């Protein structure tokens, strides 16, 4: 009997043309790990029918799927996560067309893109040589970007979708594996800290950041109002949360950050990673991933002065909130040479 082989498993993703589109197919390999979990809930109702242990009567009142997508943070694939977490954006080409700049300004007001039709939802397939599952209308409920010295940045996204079903893998061939897939390297990061009244990314703080973890709860949830389905037929955007945990070297920059925490001084933070050189230089010279945050330190040195391999450190948590001076809360910028997501 043929059995499932882990090494023959794969995860395919694609951006839906229509949210929940029944014919949309995955278009590329997810260059990481992913699995579809069926979250359908089975109920065996309590009865008194004279049978020990009850009867086999049951029903399923709720269906759905959860789709964790984990792996290296890849310049060319992060837009899939951001489009499904915030809203679908259109890249802006440089003068010669070689650079494709995608920007997501995290929603803060009712005039921002908070309709479900604004999302770039995903269709996902996972499986192996035995069986394949497909999930549609997948939005990103939360994700984490994390990294440390000597590692690639990682992304861990939790998608939620409609009820999965059995299918066959879409025709995404091995040539797709030749698509550009460059991992974001943590050590290629630059940390910038500026007054909230200044532009983010003005003043770089050198030799400061040792590791970081950015946790984003996107605010997108399945609409509970029913429309003849047991999963969901629409989404809504409620409140969101963005928290950045950073480990600092104990130096002058950490002392300043601690003072800003005590004074609750609003700041603009930028994390900027750079990759390989682009074909030509314009606004950017390299593949780039930027995270801009406005807000205040929630905690700084809550556990006191720490130690990491004999090195004194401080840990801080920065909470992103809407800033009146900038009119912004958070912004993600991705720069590659990919005009259309594969």
Largest sheet, in brief, is:
20 strands, antiparallel
What string gives the helices and strands in order?
EEEEEEEHEEEEEEEEEEEEHEEEEE
Terminus-to-terminus distance: 36 Å
Unreliable stretches, pLDDT < 50, 5 or more residues? none
Radius of gyration: 22 Å
Mean pLDDT score, rounded?
A: 93
- How helical, in percent, are the residues? under 10%
Tell me the domain tally: 1
Q: How many runs of DSSP E, i.e. beta strands?
A: 24
What's the total helix number?
Answer: 2
How big a fraction of the residues is strand? 35-45%
Question: Which structural class best describes the helix and strand composition?
Answer: mainly beta
* Overall shape: globular
Question: Would you summarize the structure shown here?
Answer:
6% of the residues lie in helices and 43% in strands. It has 342 residues and is mainly beta.
């Amino acid at each position: 009997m043929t059995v499932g082989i882990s090494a023959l498993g794969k995860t395919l993703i694609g951006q839906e043309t229509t949210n929940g589109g029944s014919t949309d197919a995955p278009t590329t390999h997810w260059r990481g790990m992913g699995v579809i979990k069926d979250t359908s809930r089975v109920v065996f109702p309590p009865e008194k029918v004279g049978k020990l242990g009850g009867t086999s009567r049951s029903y399923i009142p709720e269906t759905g799927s959860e789709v964790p997508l984990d792996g290296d943070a890849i310049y060319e694939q992060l837009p899939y996560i951001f489009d499904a977490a915030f809203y679908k954006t259109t890249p802006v080409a440089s003068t010669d067309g070689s650079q494709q700049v995608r920007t997501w300004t995290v929603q803060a007001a009712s005039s921002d893109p908070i309709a479900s039709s604004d999302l770039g939802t995903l269709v996902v397939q996972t499986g192996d040589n035995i069986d394949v599952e497909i999930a549609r209308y997948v939005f990103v409920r939360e994700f984490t970007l994390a990294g440390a010295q000597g590692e690639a940045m990682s992304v861990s996204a939790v998608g939620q979708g409609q009820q999965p079903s059995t299918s066959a893998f879409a025709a995404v061939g091995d040539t797709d594996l030749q698509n550009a897939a460059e991992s974001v390297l943590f050590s290629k990061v630059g940390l910038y800290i500026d007054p909230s009244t200044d532009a983010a990314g003005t003043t770089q703080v050198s030799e400061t950041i040792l590791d970081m973890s950015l946790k984003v709860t996107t605010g997108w949830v399945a609409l509970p109002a029913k429309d003849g389905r047991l999963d969901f037929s629409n989404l809504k955007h409620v409140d969101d949360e963005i928290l950045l945990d950073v480990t600092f070297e104990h130096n002058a920059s950490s002392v300043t950050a601690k003072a800003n925490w005590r004074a609750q001084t609003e700041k603009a933070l930028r994390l900027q990673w750079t990759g390989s050189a682009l074909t030509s230089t314009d606004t950017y010279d390299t593949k780039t991933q930027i995270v801009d945050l406005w807000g205040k330190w929630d905690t700084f040195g809550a556990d006191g002065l720490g130690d990491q391999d004999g090195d004194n450190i401080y840990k801080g948590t920065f909470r992103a909130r809407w800033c009146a001076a900038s009119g912004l809360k958070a912004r993600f910028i991705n720069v590659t040479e990919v005009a259309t997501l594969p």
